[in-house]
Design goal:
There is one protein chain. This protein has 469 residues and is an alpha/beta fold. Helices cover 51% and strands 11% of the residues. A 5-stranded parallel beta sheet has the order 6-7-8-5-9, sandwiched between helices. Strands 1-2-3-4 form a 4-stranded mixed beta sheet.
Length: 469
């Protein structure tokens, strides 16, 4: 008795299931449906819930799918995907043919998944852009350290259709005003071009939405919604590092927006060259537009920010106090604002005018800012300097003894001084697995038992990382 094609496809799934992990199988293979098999044409047709789903299968599982089909159905069988677009519409794609996203039909169930994918695509005024209306260009004080990104941001807000600065990639340390600037760009753009669909969100929220779309089988809604945005602003893009599937989704959204003349604005706490764990093809695209650095505010800018904040809060603070604060509080705009809030609170509670002695007392006795967690980039940088090797070699695959030692020390110090899991450390340093990371840590611990010189070197690196040297 001849086995039916549907049963043969079930056998294919059983073979695939034994060759991938259970999560991969449940996520990517369970939703696939058998549609038909043409014996004469030797054509197997299966359906996927979205084009993104089809693209992911072709990129990550193409080999195992084709080998399994040849094994069960025989050689020379052609695989055809039926990509479901809406309930009564679909796009037929042969496995060797990767279509343009623009050629597929648009889902009728698109929505804004920032926050909940419940708002159908329609007029721009119906979209909640998630922008902070209090962060505008009028209260983003210009200085030498932010002049370039501020000027470019204004140019984009006035003419979002230009592609010279697309994407705009703004980077700099925490607290220098990246979030304020991109909100100012978005807010001004909405004022000048109310017909534009503008969306601001964090990379973390994007990742959460993407994960939910996989769990609830709403890829069409997720992908088509983001492809409908005219100006996409994503804050802290570095949070996508190491998240392969999230990066994959963002890559296709990025390409679609860019190819259709839409503006993309990204912020990060580091430049693309330092974004270990981010796919090369995304880094290439990040660097294809304009990279604009926001630096720590210089003294004059700190004074201007203080004067603006003081005027806004209705305070009376002498010029010598402003000079003192600007000289002694230099890390970030956020810290400057914190000092002003403290002076205001103390002056009200103790009914004192703010003079220099009072300001000195407040600043000197204020709780010190909790030190930020040491970053993996900082660890690798200091180890590379200490052992005179290149940072890219530590992140790479070289097996030279001096580089292997530097890499193992970086892993050991990352385990000591960061909150990263061993799996994440391995992913970011040389794409090592969990077992290799544990082996590196164990190797260094064993060497420390008999190698006093190494112990001194690690102590020295630890002091540098903690800022005590």
């Amino acid at each position: 008795m001849t086995t039916s094609p549907r049963i043969l496809w079930t056998q294919c799934l059983e073979i695939i299931r034994s060759n991938v992990n259970e999560q991969q199988y449940q996520t990517w293979f369970t939703p696939i449906k058998f549609k038909s098999y043409d014996i004469e044409a030797k054509e197997l047709t299966i359906s996927t819930p979205s084009q993104f789903f089809y693209e992911y299968l072709e990129e990550h599982f193409r080999k195992i799918i084709h080998l399994t089909i040849y094994r069960v159905f025989g050689e020379n069988v052609r695989l055809v995907y039926l990509v479901e677009v809406v309930k009564k519409s679909s796009v037929k794609i042969e496995s060797d043919d990767v279509p343009s996203v623009a050629k597929t039909e648009t889902s009728k169930r698109q929505a804004n998944q920032s926050p909940t994918l419940t708002q159908a695509v329609g007029p721009a005024q119906d979209l909640d852009s998630q922008l902070n209306p209090n962060q505008t260009f009028s209260n983003f004080i210009e200085g030498i350290s932010n002049k370039l990104p501020r000027s470019i941001g204004q140019a984009i807000a006035e003419k979002p259709s230009q592609q010279t600065f697309n994407p705009l990639f703004i980077y700099g340390p925490s607290g220098v005003g990246k979030t304020h600037l991109v909100n100012a760009i978005g807010t001004r753009l909405k004022e000048l071009h109310p017909e534009k669909r503008v969306l601001y969100l964090s990379a973390h929220l994007f990742q959460v939405q993407f994960t939910d779309s996989i769990r609830h089988n709403t890829f069409n809604d997720f992908m088509h919604f983001y492809q409908s945005i005219d100006v996409l602003i994503i804050d802290d893009i570095q949070e996508m590092m190491g998240l392969e599937r999230t990066q994959y989704a963002f890559f296709h959204i990025f390409n679609h927006l860019r190819q259709n003349g839409r503006q993309i604005i990204l912020t990060s706490d580091r430049p693309p060259i330092s974004m270990q764990g981010m796919e090369d093809r995304l880094l290439t695209r990040f660097k294809s537009g304009l990279l604009a650095e926001l630096e720590k505010p210089e003294v004059q800018l700190r004074k201007d920010i203080l004067r603006s904040k003081i005027k806004h809060d209705g305070l009376q603070i002498p010029e010598n106090v402003i000079d003192y604060i600007s000289q002694n509080v230099s890390n970030s705009v956020r810290e400057l604002e914190g000092v002003i809030h403290s002076l205001l609170a103390y002056s009200v509670v103790y009914n004192k005018d703010v003079d220099l002695d009072f300001a000195q007392s407040i600043i000197q006795h204020a709780p010190k800012t909790v030190a930020k967690e040491v970053s993996l980039d900082k660890i690798v940088e200091e180890v590379s300097i200490k052992y005179n090797v290149k940072q890219e070699d530590i992140y790479g695959k070289s097996r030279k003894a001096e580089i292997v030692l530097a890499r193992q020390l970086s892993i050991y110090l990352a385990q000591m001084h960061t909150q990263l899991s061993t799996s994440k450390i391995g992913l970011l340093i040389g794409n090592k697995n969990h077992a290799t990371v544990l082996h590196s840590i164990k190797t260094i611990k064993n060497r420390l038992k008999a190698d006093n010189a190494l112990k001194e070197q690690i102590d020295e690196l630890t002091n540098i990382l903690k800022g005590t040297r």
